[in-house]
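Hi support team,

I submitted a single chain yesterday and got back a structure, but I'm not sure I'm reading the token output correctly. Could someone confirm the output below corresponds to the sequence I sent? I've pasted both exactly as they appear in my results page.

Thanks,
R.
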Amino acid sequence: MVENNQDNMIQFVDVEKYYGHFHALKNINLTIKRGETVVLIGPSGSGKSTLIRAINGLEPIQEGHLIVNGYDLHDPKTDINKIRKRVGMVFQHFNLYNNKSVIENVMLAPRIVSHIPEEENEKYALELLDRVGLKDKAGSMPSMLSGGQKQRVAIARSLAMKPSALLFDEPTSALDPEMIGDVLRIIQNIAKDSDMTSLIVTHEMNFAQNVANRVIFMADGEVLEDSKTSDFFKKPKSVRAQQFVDQVQNN
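Hi R., thanks for writing in. Yes, this is the structure output for that exact sequence:
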């Protein structure tokens, strides 16, 4: 029996995920409270992206319970579109509509899903673009933007639905090094200036230390550590985590 605690935004209970015979997520038990900012780190192929995509229903689980905002995603009666209204996602590769302007990309979901009046929708979209430093690009097409600018538009688009939680799947991995800082600053400001729950997959260790309440370390489909940020970076509990931190910080 899964306890329905209103303080919990996301809860994994005995979750298992397979791709054929490959065991991608192994007995995941995690609880993320409302308003927390949690960073998910670990080597490539450890299951981080699979875990975060499962929260938005993009990767179905095979066993266990995944409770998001009070709804069990493994229950066939759950309407996944209701979950996605309240849980935004920022992908590695932006996923903007290239045939629509910047502001149209931001306005599209509130218009179609929430039926927000156009004047109100446009006003809020401009506020969000201003928040990510791109109000002057509202009429531009995505092809006219740099990678960092596209990712900032993607963040504004995710905020347009006023989500309770925002998921970031390695949001800087596709960016040139000089563009990473701007995007990380935007994410950090969002995490600090709102009561929204944030779960961020990243390899940026300095950013993780500055933004997160907690660090979750994964390897080989398992959660090996779940610690306060200061505790984790002071001394990881597992040898595997220590090796990973040393390797990333020395590169």
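A quick pointer for reading it: The mean pLDDT is 92. Let us know if anything else looks off.

Best,
Support desk
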